[in-house]
């Protein structure tokens, strides 16, 4: 069965197949049994909802000096992506410098300027949107230094006024170079899990981050699917990253206290559990709540084992790093950004009965993406 996916609210439609299962219920299915639909998607998610990496492309363009700007090495997801890029770059024959952007646009901008001054062959950057680093990107463009982004939004996006694009190329994941589309699907999947496990009945506390465009899309994906569930009620609890851990912890505690009849708590950022949300959940004294989010870190997997968290939707962070490397290699080989293929990637559901990796380990997707890239780069 194939479902069609539409990125709502931005006037943009994106349809793609994730191994025969796309992430949203079609308009025709709106009157069908949403619980049955969600249950089927969850079963597919246990097996893994992935698209394969590209099957062809340029051989390794060796001898390049590339700087990679991490979104913040203190964060597991950023460090894992950087490690994946470094792994891939070794196979490409590049000299790589991993730079820590520390989740701060001004720091990332300074690193871009330093890279331009060092006359690097390319800059890769993760999770910094164009407006926050615009002046540095303009300098890189003026000096002919290509900048490849992943999980970032370019200045050409409608939400930023549809200005001139400043990233040389953005990684295409699941058929889109707009990071909002990936996160929208991420939100859809959480809704499907909650619907399937609650039988489509009850109140859900939905914790939504409001300061980042990708997180707004993440929440919108959840809301668009949950809106198809007639028996579901949503109590939204909003916060922004600047409020973490305080007063965000108090915001979450209040949301749970004000909704004692909730059957589930959902959020799009697993790291929140370590930043106060775990405390808020435990203070309810309830062990029957469905609690879950996505990203998939070792600490969250331990919380699933202990019963504090119910589920996570794991992302293949090292694969993201290899995807950035392949996109940069295509830029170095002269491939036009508009011709670059999807790098694949995808999602996998993890709960106490499915896909828990060994203690302390990250989730590894059941796709040998490394071999796929090496078959291209080795010619």
TrEMBL record:
It holds the Pfam family Peripla_BP_4. The keyword Cytoplasm does not apply. Keywords: Signal. It comes from the Bacteria. Residues 80-335 form the Periplasmic binding protein domain. Residues 1-29 form the signal peptide. It is found in: Cell envelope. Its main location: other. The keyword Signal applies. One of its GO terms (molecular function) is carbohydrate binding. InterPro entries: Peripla_BP_I (IPR028082), SBP_2_dom (IPR025997). Belongs to the bacterial solute-binding protein 2 family. This is Ribose transport system substrate-binding protein. It comes from Celeribacter neptunius. The lineage of its organism: Bacteria, Pseudomonadati, Pseudomonadota, Alphaproteobacteria, Rhodobacterales.
